[in-house]
Amino acid sequence: MCLEAGVARRWLRAQRPSNKQMIHLATQQRNEIAAHGERDYPYEACGLLLGSFRADGQKIVGETYAISNAREEEAKRNRFLIRPEELLRGERYAETSGLEVVGFYHSHPDDSAVPSQYDLEHAWPLYSYIVVSVRSGAAEELRSWEMQADRSRFAEEEILVPQT
Question: What would the CATH number be for the domain defined by 3-14+23-160?
């Protein structure tokens, strides 16, 4: 399912009162995001979060899908860009795997794991945005955010690590 086709259904679901925003992220996926951030340092790393939306609005991440930062060289230190064809490739992969795009991740080199104003201006409601802080090449803090329906700000999501 393409992002646009699924947005209306998830928007309607999000209009219902729900519990606190939560995302389920396994230790392996957390480690994959951190490793991608370290590997691409000092540039921003980026990728997709693939999984499913629960009826209560929680998101379950089943896989991460790394994408190359397509931003021009001089801007890669503080911006990322996912080309439309890369996003489409990720959506197709998710669909063939029985998954949906539930969010995006990116790194903040030598900065906090808090979305920037630029991140807010380019985000979409309903999706999770995981930000990993990478300082001096080492991943530190990893936090998840969801844009509010009115697009005014991000609210932090609780990251739940499933018991294995």
Answer: 3.40.140.10
Q: Beta strand pairing status for 46-53 and 128-135?
A: unpaired
Model confidence at 16: pLDDT above 80: no
Helix residue ranges per DSSP H, the chain? 3-14, 27-40, 84-96, 117-122
pTM of the predicted model, to two decimals?
0.87
Place of tokens 């490739």: 89
Whether 74 has a pLDDT exceeding 80, the answer reads no
Which residues carry out catalysis? 44
Q: Give the domain ranges of the chain.
A: 3-14+23-160
The size of the chain, in residues, is 164
Summary mean pLDDT of the chain: 89
Do residues 7 and 103 touch, judged by C-beta distance below 8 A?
no
Q: Which residue has the tokens 């995981």?
A: 130
